[in-house]
Amino acid sequence: MRFPEGFLWGAATAAYQVEGAVEGRGPSIWDTFSHTPGKVDNGDTGDVAVDHYRRFRSDVALMADIGLKAYRFSVSWPRVLAGDLDFYANLVDELLGHGIMPVLTLYHWDLPQELEDAGGWTARDTAARFADYAAVVAARLGDRVPLWTTLNEPWCSAFLGYGSGLHAPGRTDGAAALAAAHHLNLAHGWGVQALRAALPSDAQVSIALNPHAVSPADDSADAVEAARRIDAVGNRVFLGPLFRGGYPDDLMLDTLAVTDWSFVRDGDEAAIGAPIDVLGINYYSTAVVEGFGPRVEPSPWPGSEHVRFAPVTGPVTEMDWGIDPGGLTDLLVGVHREYGVPLMVTENGAAFPDTVVDGAVSDPSRVEYLRSHVGAVHEAITAGADLRGYFVWSLVDNFEWSYGYAKRFGIVHVDYATQRRVWKDSAHWYREVIKANGT
């Protein structure tokens, strides 16, 4: 099984999950959230994380040993506000010095707390501030970073952050979640404009979404309708304005009891639809809906709080997420056929319990998960999808948001007490995949 020449093999992380060094920047919403009792398992925070800020040179050497062709990282907006872009400039130079492509994400959920205090993503001004931030980072790093991503998984930022409250900033308001989704979309559109103005003409711009691979449990009218509703508020709320010129009519009807959408102004949807070069797809699992039941609140599905999800069956990861590599093939082929945009799998991976024994970590379940999903990507390419790359989530074990340090996604094990890194078998496996450009 061989991949196209130039296929980009990488791994990904996010600033708050790995950097630590909080003393060098202002607070983000995840600092505030994680320091609030009861919000994160075991009271864990990202104050130290895996100390990537101080250990980035040895971490980049580790990436080179694995053979990574690209490293997808995010920039901490609060760190940039504090005047520290040197860290990212040094990181980019270190990556380039090892022959690794820097793939930069501007926003991976760590909104500056001062902006949340002014309304956060429910405020239109946050989108304007994001465009200013994008311009600053592009002016400093644009000559050395060939691929830029505006936002990572804006669905999580909007609907887990402002709808269900499971993520920072922890709000539980359906109308706020929909306003946040729009302003994240607008931030992307204005951010693309800012990047295009500052970057070289050959630089590429993208966004990374986590489309919900949702299907009805059967052919009943209720199950089909439930799947349509989740597709609307889970997927087309972003894909519509990105590629179809505006928000889908059925989404607007589904949510009329929640909001009147007056936050959308003339010209917004055109700005959101600014052309991009590649669409990032983050994939972990699928979902099945059975129909409707009692309303569940707080909910990440404003207007569809009564949709009933089917229990997960079959093998699962430690997150209790079902393992379904075929769902990735279907998703990639479906997005390709529907929107015709070049794609990258910008996150894919699994959490499993890991233990260091005699200086090694055997993780056969993760190896099999990755093997099957890499195969699924190859099947999508064979079916005609324009796939440019694949990024494992994650390079190293790290702070897993509301789960703290309880879940390990890395292909490299981290002892959080000593910060010692140990390759898991999955890292050795991935090294051979990269070397062979396939399996």
UniProtKB/TrEMBL annotation:
<feature type="binding site">
    <location>
        <begin position="400"/>
        <end position="401"/>
    </location>
    <ligand>
        <name>substrate</name>
    </ligand>
</feature>
<feature type="active site" description="Nucleophile">
    <location>
        <position position="347"/>
    </location>
</feature>
<feature type="binding site">
    <location>
        <position position="284"/>
    </location>
    <ligand>
        <name>substrate</name>
    </ligand>
</feature>
<dbReference type="InterPro" id="IPR017853">
    <property type="entry name" value="GH"/>
</dbReference>
<comment type="similarity">
    <text>Belongs to the glycosyl hydrolase 1 family.</text>
</comment>
<keyword id="KW-0326">Glycosidase</keyword>
<protein>
    <recommendedName>
        <fullName>Beta-glucosidase</fullName>
        <ecNumber>3.2.1.21</ecNumber>
    </recommendedName>
</protein>
<dbReference type="InterPro" id="IPR017736">
    <property type="entry name" value="Glyco_hydro_1_beta-glucosidase"/>
</dbReference>
<dbReference type="InterPro" id="IPR033132">
    <property type="entry name" value="GH_1_N_CS"/>
</dbReference>
<keyword id="KW-0136">Cellulose degradation</keyword>
<keyword id="KW-0624">Polysaccharide degradation</keyword>
<dbReference type="Pfam" id="PF00232">
    <property type="entry name" value="Glyco_hydro_1"/>
</dbReference>
<feature type="active site" description="Proton donor">
    <location>
        <position position="153"/>
    </location>
</feature>
<dbReference type="GO" id="GO:0030245">
    <property type="term" value="P:cellulose catabolic process"/>
</dbReference>
<keyword id="KW-0378">Hydrolase</keyword>
<keyword id="KW-0119">Carbohydrate metabolism</keyword>
<feature type="binding site">
    <location>
        <position position="17"/>
    </location>
    <ligand>
        <name>substrate</name>
    </ligand>
</feature>
<feature type="binding site">
    <location>
        <position position="393"/>
    </location>
    <ligand>
        <name>substrate</name>
    </ligand>
</feature>
<dbReference type="GO" id="GO:0005829">
    <property type="term" value="C:cytosol"/>
</dbReference>
<dbReference type="InterPro" id="IPR001360">
    <property type="entry name" value="Glyco_hydro_1"/>
</dbReference>
<dbReference type="GO" id="GO:0008422">
    <property type="term" value="F:beta-glucosidase activity"/>
</dbReference>
<feature type="binding site">
    <location>
        <position position="108"/>
    </location>
    <ligand>
        <name>substrate</name>
    </ligand>
</feature>
<feature type="binding site">
    <location>
        <position position="152"/>
    </location>
    <ligand>
        <name>substrate</name>
    </ligand>
</feature>
